[in-house]
Design goal:
The chain is built from 16 helices and 24 strands. By secondary structure, it is of the alpha/beta class. Bound molecules: S-adenosyl-L-homocysteine.
Amino acid sequence: MSGSIKVVGFGPGSFEHITDRARQAMVTSHVIIGYHTYVDLIRDLLVDQEIVRTGMTEEVSRAQTAVKLARAGKDVAVISSGDAGVYGMAGLIYEVLIESGWNPSESLQVEIIPGISAINSCASLLGAPIMHDACTISLSDHLTPWETIKRRVEAAAMADFVIALYNPRSGRRTSQIVETQQILLQYRSPDTPVGLVKSAYRAQQHVVRTTLAHMLEQEIGMLTTVIIGNSTTFYHGDLMITPRGYQRKYTLDQVEQRLRPGERLHVENEPWSLRAVQSKENTPVLTKQKASMSATLDSLQLAQEALSRVQMSATSAQQSSTLLGQVNERSQMAVQTAPQQVVDFVVAVAPGVANKRFTAEQLICLADLAKDQGEVHYTADHQIELRIKTEDPQAVVDQLREAGFYVFPVGEVVKVKACDFCDGEKAESIPYARELTNRLGGRKVPKELCIGVNGCAMACYGAVLEDIGIVYRKGKFDLFLGGKTTGRTACAAKLMAEGIPANQIVNLVEQIVNEYSEQAFPSERFHKFFARVGIVAGFSYDKTTAPVVVDTVCGT
Ligand code: SAH
């Protein structure tokens, strides 16, 4: 004549967040067993249940009492806050039962009733900080060796998990959170968002948004859960948000998407996936047709490969001033081991930095290269792109450069768009445009970034509309930042500084690009990045451009 044990997670503390099943289990039990504070939290739900309440460190005696009463025929509810299976009573009840010789086929039935754990309730008050891989770590070393806890903190920090710290500090345990912060700072930026939630969904609820550097200046206690963001977590006003990664495939401010539903799972649109990595690693020497179908390298990688091959050849030494992005060690390796295969190859070509005139030979060269299955494409950005299938990107680049072209990778790279300097008549600032192109043109960035360079105050090539615009005027440069050329929120860049000495401009623009590369989210446009971080290279984002709403279409 055994009774039952229900181990009930009653959520963060408010009645609305108790599940129906948990409520029913508590009100239909004969006995409620719990820690004083927890019993107080749910007391108003109870009718005539016998109550066994014990102190903080009395979990084992609570579990033993529950087993004893259940064996005597009582229906017992053992209560935990949050979820009973997360640093709660569920595991201990099973352990004590097993010690007493119990097995699941016995008549004494056990049910674990899930509840909303602190990681969920606290996250909901902060925004959406655990949208990506997250873990919980309890900093209590009463039952777990501190060395183990430290190792777990370090592993989670290293692996870029969002981390929810339970039991972060008590009256006597004060230094664990300090050491934890120090470990985290070895792997994460001091600006990493950190949310502190005390007594979520209880009368004393208190929410603090801070950062990894400043979190210890705030009150943290036994009723607090500390949520540490990962390297992509950001604040939007009061909201702490961790992106899931949609921005890699979707343009979130547009209804019309670049990829159709059927294309979203194609391997070439998920170059970060295991499938894509495996298909690169395992590509055997393929027949031409098969290879062209399975080619997954993006055009930037191909262009980089092509450049590295060119650079390794003797002729490239003389031509090193021409451009094709940066070559990294990995792409050099890839060149040495890559099998010959037909690939889709896309490069942008230009007759010069300032020179906009294509010679007849150059047009013939493009036509020759494109003639079978390729095409020459004039882009919305006024660029000429050559799109062809080839087994040998290096030979294509060689040929283009021989024809006097500048060759650039396409994709998420820096584009330097210079004017024609009044057909070369206003030549003074051309060297700066060249230097910028040499240093930054083709550099990989989180999202395509345009640097406009105009040689006089007319700025007729529209530098002031680009992500970064520089305009030469009276021997110095004016700097514009944050233009957005498309979409309903399109806007010109803002004038940030006038009269920057010409010898400082290239370094300054490079610093801006560096900050963007280091701090922007994947696929975050410069404009959005600037608005989010507020300051780039010491220049502040101007928030004062609320749109004026006009009813009439023609404005009269
Ligand atoms: N079983 C519970 C956790 C118990 S451990 C659960 O799943 O939530 C106790 C720790 O949980 C506290 O130190 C605190 O870090 C966290 N916690 C529990 N309830 C909380 C609440 N309402 N608000 C904030 N943190 C809470």
